[in-house]
């Protein structure tokens, strides 16, 4: 089997790693890939959004199916284009991807389908936004409706801050077209849970849950980022029997049914970001692809006896899954992101990376790196590397992730030293 993985980040590195772990005989090609992926697969210099070039390559190179990592090519209609030329591809169509590319669309769909989520007001006018902020009070959430690289959702502690944020998006163009429409949303109390669901549009395969850490600094302080770390599985799920079933019954099934009823079935990876509130789980957001950095924790935590390949290949061909199922976690994984100085606002890149020998119980996925002509590894993005520690228990995995994150060196390195802090708090409260 020859598989094309589209993308260049840590998520795509983890996907390539998982494919090769499940079946070493698979020939994997990445476009464009990165230096870490190049150690596992062939990399070809085709951009993730160069859809015509990707189609040409897939046809000429005998690619059996394609796996799309990032959201931008999905939003641009890569799946529609591949299918128009009868090429198998895993991911939603442009219409399906609107669950992520338009928060206004997803909110309207959830309202129609009765999916539990926070109350919100969609605004394209500053006066509307000010009125909504006044109605909800503080804290309040302001969201850019479009794609903003994971940074377009911000919680504000005061009404004045929220008003300034709304003005920055709607008036000053903080997030460009992504912020032409915003959502003012009530603040939800609880813990977040990330759930990956591979689906043919009706049936699905559920992966182990994870928890992401969006803020830059320890204890969830500082600016929002694309994600500073994640861990999987969660003891919280064990403490709340039936919570995954509740999310599947009240979120996943009605959402898929609503997409089918609109004539735009969603096939691919549905990411459910849920808040576990006192009133039950409520949707924070949907994504239309594997989350980053949750993928770097979920895939290493999963048992290798559970195959993702069969389900992804079935969905990529446009065939139906045999039924609903779940994949399990056989160990704990904790992922720590190493970010460049100045991230997330203005990352400074080009620093040399000193990489010690990687231990057997640690995985390092490249997110924003490049090779100089002399072979030196350099920083090339805001999020540079993700360090995943693996262990039979959470404590082991966290220690291994944090220890090796400290050993890797580059100028101005930023990372959080508390990935999984809620898990530790839960465990401390139980003793």
Poorly predicted tracts of residues:
none
- In one word, what is the shape? globular
Based on the coordinates given, report the CATH architecture of the largest domain: 2-Layer Sandwich
Q: Estimate nothing, just give the exact number of structural domains.
A: 4
* Cα end-to-end separation: 49 Å
Largest sheet: 5 strands, parallel
In percent, how helical is the residue content?
25-40%
Q: Say which CATH homologous superfamily of the largest domain is assigned.
A: ATP-grasp fold, B domain
Write the CATH fold name of the largest domain: D-amino Acid Aminotransferase, Chain A, domain 1
Name of the top-level CATH class of the largest domain: Alpha Beta
Radius of gyration: 21 Å
Number of helices: 14
**Residue fraction in strands:** 25-35%
Output mean pLDDT: 95
Number of strands: 23
Secondary-structure class: alpha+beta
Spatial strand sequence of the major β-sheet: 3-2-1-4-5
Describe the structure.
The protein is of the alpha+beta class. It has 4 domains: 2-91, Rossmann fold (3-Layer(aba) Sandwich); 119-186, ATP-grasp fold, A domain (Dna Ligase, domain 1, 2-Layer Sandwich), CATH 3.30.1490.20; 191-326, ATP-grasp fold, B domain (D-amino Acid Aminotransferase, Chain A, domain 1, 2-Layer Sandwich); 332-430, Phosphoribosylglycinamide synthetase, C-terminal domain (Glycinamide Ribonucleotide Synthetase, Chain A, domain 4), CATH 3.90.600.10. It has 14 helices and 23 strands. It has a 5-stranded parallel sheet. A 5-stranded mixed sheet has the order 17-16-10-11-18. Helix 7 packs antiparallel against helix 8 (159-170). The longest helix is centred in the middle third of the chain and has 19 residues, at 243-261. The radius of gyration is 21 Å and the shape is globular. It starts with a strand and ends with a helix. The mean pLDDT is 95.
